[in-house]
């Protein structure tokens, strides 16, 4: 049996980061998002915009050279840097507080090398999508790169690829075991998203809405988590707050929601939480 709590704002509202009168942007945290190639940049742009909206002071998309002109033409406040090699990516990630990697990254050796590069820096990680699926059948290789500052955000399909059969124990017990085994925070997404910490803490999120079942919605969540981590929230609390805010944003917009709409709801979500 696990002792679970519903993911209620009362648990983390007092931990939310607000800028002080003298705060400058670097003190609000620096987030990186690794993009896929030129035909696969939307996921990173969604995550980056979500990170900015939730309060990260600076957000930089890190991309292969072919994607640079595509991304630069499609963002304003988000910054863009390109990299040719994993070593160059590590140099860019080094000064950042957290890096999101996986959305539309591609199921390639390059993605694995890029993950290893950012994992070797001081930046915390939010590992999603292709950076999870890549490790189907060899999850230990992924866990060896993670620590307790990192967050994995699998949907059930991705979770099954990393932890075959574990969901049969129930979603909550499965997430707890996944966090223990990986040493990282696990966000098992779905109608009721489960947030589990490597120390055994677990919360079940219950304000979800099916309007969130739309392409790119998970990319926005990854950016929200990263955006709270860079502002100093610890990963389990950042994940809890981000999952609730993401669901609240979806519920506010309702019918017709597409992923692009979610970051635009965050100011109202934050204002009400404040
Ligand atoms: N704007 C952009 O640039 C966007 C880019 N994106 C990027 O596109 C890439 C490929 O994405 P993807 O959707 O094909 O990969 P993935 O989610 O693994 O699905 C593969 C199979 O897994 C299953 N499955 C899926 N969800 C499940 C669930 N909840 N619970 C259980 N099973 C589930 C399902 O299998 P089925 O049920 O059909 O048998 C499905 O067919 C990836 O890089 C991603 O980041 C997206 O983020 C969108 C926005
Ligand atoms: N029926 C649903 N009810 C509540 N939340 C949902 C539902 N379907 C999906 N979601 C949420 O939407 C997001 C989808 O993420 P994901 O599957 O990774 O999408 P993508 O890869 O397209 O970004 C997750 O946060 C998940 O919890």
Automatic annotation (TrEMBL):
Q: Which reactions fall under this protein's catalytic activity?
A: (6S)-NADPHX + ADP = AMP + phosphate + NADPH + H(+); (6S)-NADHX + ADP = AMP + phosphate + NADH + H(+)
For this protein, the Enzyme Commission number is 4.2.1.136
Q: Does the keyword Zinc-finger apply?
A: no
CDD domains on file: YXKO-related
Which residues are noted in the entry as (6S)-NADPHX-binding? 43, 155, 219
- Gene3D superfamilies registered for this protein in UniProt: 3.40.1190.20
Q: Which cofactor does it need?
A: Mg(2+)
Q: Which UniProt keywords apply?
A: ATP-binding, Lyase, NAD, NADP, Nucleotide-binding
Q: Which PROSITE patterns match?
A: YJEF_C_2 (PS01050), YJEF_C_3 (PS51383)
Q: Which SUPFAM superfamilies match?
A: Ribokinase-like
Q: Where is the YjeF C-terminal domain?
A: 8-273
Q: Which residues participate in AMP binding?
A: 189-193, 218
Pfam families given in the database record:
Carb_kinase
Transmembrane feature ranges: none
Q: Which domain of life is it from?
A: Bacteria
What the protein does comes down to: Catalyzes the dehydration of the S-form of NAD(P)HX at the expense of ADP, which is converted to AMP. Together with NAD(P)HX epimerase, which catalyzes the epimerization of the S- and R-forms, the enzyme allows the repair of both epimers of NAD(P)HX, a damaged form of NAD(P)H that is a result of enzymatic or heat-dependent hydration.
Name the family. Belongs to the NnrD/CARKD family.
Q: Can you state the subunit structure given in the record?
A: Homotetramer.
In Swiss-Prot or TrEMBL terms, this protein is called ADP-dependent (S)-NAD(P)H-hydrate dehydratase
**Organism name:** Brevundimonas staleyi
């Amino acid at each position: 049996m696990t002792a679970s709590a519903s993911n209620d704002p009362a648990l983390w509202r007092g931990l939310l980061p607000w800028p002080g009168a003298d705060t400058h942007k670097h003190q609000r945290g620096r987030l990186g998002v690794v993009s896929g190639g030129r035909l696969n940049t939307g996921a990173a742009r969604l995550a980056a915009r979500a990170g900015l909206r939730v309060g990260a002071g600076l957000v930089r998309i890190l991309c292969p050279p072919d994607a640079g002109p595509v991304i630069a033409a499609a963002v304003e406040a988000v910054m863009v840097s390109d990299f040719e090699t994993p070593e160059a990516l590590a140099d860019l990630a080094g000064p950042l507080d957290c890096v999101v990697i996986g959305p539309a990254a591609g199921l390639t050796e390059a993605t694995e090398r890029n993950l290893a590069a950012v994992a070797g820096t001081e930046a915390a990680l939010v590992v999603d999508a292709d950076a999870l699926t890549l490790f189907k059948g060899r999850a230990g290789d992924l866990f060896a790169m993670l620590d307790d500052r990192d967050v994995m955000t699998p949907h059930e399909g991705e979770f099954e690829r990393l932890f075959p059969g574990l969901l049969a124990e129930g979603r909550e017990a499965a997430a707890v075991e996944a966090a223990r085994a990986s040493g990282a925070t696990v966000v098992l997404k779905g109608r009721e998203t489960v947030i589990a910490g490597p120390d055994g803490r677990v919360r079940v999120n219950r304000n979800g809405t099916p309007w969130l079942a739309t392409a790119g919605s998970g990319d926005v969540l990854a950016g929200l988590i990263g955006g709270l981590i860079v502002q100093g929230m610890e990963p389990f609390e950042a994940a809890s707050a981000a999952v609730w805010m993401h669901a609240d944003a979806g519920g506010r917009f309702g019918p017709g929601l597409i992923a692009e709409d979610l970051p635009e709801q965050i100011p109202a979500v934050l204002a009400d939480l404040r």
